[in-house]
Specification:
It is a single chain. By secondary structure, this protein is an all-beta fold. The chain folds into two domains: 7-74, no CATH class; 83-249, Trefoil (Acidic Fibroblast Growth Factor, subunit A), CATH 2.80.10. The chain is built from no helices and 24 strands. Strands 12-13-22-21-23-11-15-16-17-18 form a ten-stranded antiparallel beta sheet, with no helix packed on it. A hairpin with a 5-residue loop joins β17 and β18 (162-164). It starts with 6 loop residues before the first strand and ends with a strand. Residues 158-160, 194, 220-223 line the site of one 2-acetamido-2-deoxy-beta-D-glucopyranose. Residues 25-72 form the Endo-1,3(4)-beta-glucanase 1 carbohydrate binding domain. Pfam families: Carb_bind (PF10645). Residues 1-20 form the signal peptide. It comes from Podospora appendiculata.
Amino acid sequence: MARLPLIAAALLAFGDSVLGALQPCGKAQYDPTQYVCYDNQFLCPIIAGEPLSYCSGACYSKFQYQCVKNVLGVLPGVAAGTSFTLTVSNPTLPINGKFVTAGGLHLSLGGTTSSYCPTQVGSACPAGNITALAAGSYGGGLSMSTMVPGGQQVYLDPNWNLAYTQAHSAYIPSGSTVSGFAAYAGGGLVNLNGNGWGWVGCPPTASGGGGGVWNLVARNSSNAASLNNCTPVNLKVNTLPGGMYAWQYT
Ligand SMILES: *[C@@H]1O[C@H](CO)[C@@H](O)[C@H](O)[C@H]1NC(C)=O
Ligand SMILES: *[C@@H]1O[C@H](CO)[C@@H](O)[C@H](O)[C@H]1NC(C)=O
């Protein structure tokens, strides 16, 4: 997600010889793989593959903000209780457009949804073949879109992976973060913890036998350096009609 609230528009990319073919933006030179030029005078960076938009002197991400009559504001939050899926957004990655998927009590990028329906519930269970989350209050908690009594709470585990509680259990490891999530209508899921460092996708390692499934990690100032093999991504919110989408995720 956007590592901003606001990035001042006056970002100038100087004529650095390591960069590719530079282009003029007014009097400045910029690398079009890193920046986008508005009105031949304003440069905004490309972050997580998203050329940031421009609004009255500020660059912004459409996953979190909107520009209405030249005034920048946050997007409205998804109503609490509404279910939604998440898709990866970063056009530079092979997992662009793939779903965030539940499995092994954590959320990954581009995997297969793991869910369970008790036999005694049977046909009353939702299909459980897509991974859906349910919005909490703005900036508050988040849960999985499940029917199991007690629900399944979503949290950042101590390694800042996005995890969820096991059905029938409230156990959350100490050092986890249970609030500070915002799902924006028409935008993305944003981790408001950690000053806007955003999400990254980490490719499967050869030894991990990842099967094309990428890890999802929330960055912050202290873990960012250790995640340099990972790439920033936005998580696009796709709201769903009412109801829950699984009995429980496993
Ligand atoms: C989920 O299962 C339902 C019912 O079996 C099916 O109609 C639907 O196409 C499936 N969706 C996905 C994404 O697999
Ligand atoms: C950043 O994430 C790491 C886990 O990767 C966590 O240990 C640390 O406490 C977090 N830092 C902040 C400032 O929240």
